[in-house]
Design goal:
By secondary structure, the protein is mainly β. It has one domain. The protein contains no helices and five strands.
């Protein structure tokens, strides 16, 4: 996701045991370039971030990360 993206309002962390069983774990407000998301225990083998607009629409996704 481009760091200057103006539509990003929040980030949502998804994870799961399989790439097709991802569930939301937490959502944090966008707080600039250094926005951080706390680690949520052992939340699965796969993770992905979604960039959300103010209305909750997904405006971008990270690549799927396998741990």
């Amino acid at each position: 996701m481009w760091n200057g993206a103006t539509r990003v309002n929040r980030w949502r962390l998804l994870s799961g045991p399989e790439s097709n069983t991802m569930t939301p774990r937490t959502t944090v407000a966008w707080s600039g370039y250094d926005t951080s998301i706390p680690q949520i225990g052992n939340s699965g083998s796969y993770s992905q971030l979604e960039a959300l607009a103010a209305d909750g629409a997904v405006v971008g996704r990270s690549v799927l990360i396998a741990r």
